């Protein structure tokens, strides 16, 4: 059995709930690999080999060593790959078609690969303050970054369309360069010399912050939720 653990929901962020509700220590108990964001949407999180990195909206990347740092939304798993990636080069537009034989439409999966990237286009959300805006409003004005000829690791998840709301349907991936100086939520990429794996999950664990009063009191407008999430994610695939 292979499990994907997710704390919080993407719908919460759309509903202006960006307060941190789980600590780094709590999340690392459920996985050594993953992606997420920090309290107040303070940047993009990348978890590799049990280490947590934070891409900041000023373009810097820091390693998070404080186990008490809080996150509102994060997905993690223990890296136990089930498949070797069947390609040596890929871009965001061809990622799904190159994995078509694995029939991902109705399952959760994690991808993790190292490669040489001719181009990576990322965004990093800036920290928000109370009263929090919606994720869609934040996404309309967010720093974007480009890097050419960079070696690094891409990690993230595929989720079925039916789970759009709890998470982002389709691909949601982050990038971290080998020199730990460039990272973020991936909007587009092109990679060669790809070496990595795919992990298929038969168990999706959704954890909710039921002790958080703001979450319990949230009123979510479901109209346009799916289109809003897609717009805020800015996916190319």
TrEMBL record:
EC number from the UniProt entry = 4.1.1.5
> What catalytic activity is recorded?
(2S)-2-acetolactate + H(+) = (R)-acetoin + CO2
- InterPro entries assigned: Acetolactate_a_deCO2ase (IPR005128)
- According to UniProt, the name of this protein is Alpha-acetolactate decarboxylase
Say which enzyme class the record assigns.
lyase
Copy the pathway line from the protein's UniProt record: Polyol metabolism; (R,R)-butane-2,3-diol biosynthesis; (R,R)-butane-2,3-diol from pyruvate: step 2/3
Keyword Lyase appears in the UniProt entry: yes
Q: Which PANTHER family match?
A: ALPHA-ACETOLACTATE DECARBOXYLASE
Q: Which family is this sequence assigned to?
A: Belongs to the alpha-acetolactate decarboxylase family.
- GO molecular function list: acetolactate decarboxylase activity
Which Pfam families does the record associate with it? AAL_decarboxy
Output the NCBIfam families linked to this UniProt entry: acetolac_decarb (TIGR01252)
KW Lyase (keyword) present: yes
Source domain of life:
Bacteria
Keywords of the record, alphabetical order, are: Acetoin biosynthesis, Decarboxylase, Lyase
Record GO biological process: acetoin biosynthetic process
């Amino acid at each position: 059995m292979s499990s994907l653990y997710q704390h919080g929901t993407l719908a919460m962020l759309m509903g202006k709930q960006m307060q941190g509700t789980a600590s780094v220590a709590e999340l690392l108990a459920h996985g050594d690999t993953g992606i997420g964001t920090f309290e107040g949407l303070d940047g993009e999180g990348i978890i590799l080999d049990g280490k947590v990195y934070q891409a900041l909206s000023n373009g810097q990347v820091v390693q998070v060593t404080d186990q008490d740092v809080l996150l509102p939304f994060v997905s993690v798993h223990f890296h136990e790959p089930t498949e070797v990636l069947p390609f040596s080069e890929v871009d965001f537009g061809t990622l799904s078609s190159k994995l078509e034989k694995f029939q991902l439409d109705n399952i959760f999966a994690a991808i993790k690969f190292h490669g040489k990237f001719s181009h990576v286009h990322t965004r990093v959300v800036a920290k928000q303050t109370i009263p929090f805006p919606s994720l869609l409003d934040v996404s309309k004005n967010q720093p974007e970054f480009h890097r050419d000829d960079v070696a690094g690791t891409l990690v993230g998840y595929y989720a079925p369309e039916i789970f759009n709301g709890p998470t982002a349907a389709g691909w949601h991936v982050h990038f971290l360069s080998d020199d730990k100086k460039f990272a973020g939520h991936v909007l587009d990429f092109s990679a060669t010399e790809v070496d990595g794996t795919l992990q298929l999950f038969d168990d999706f664990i959704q954890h909710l912050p039921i002790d958080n009063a703001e979450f319990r009191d949230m009123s979510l407008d479901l109209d346009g939720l799916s289109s809003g999430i897609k717009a805020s994610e800015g996916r190319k695939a």
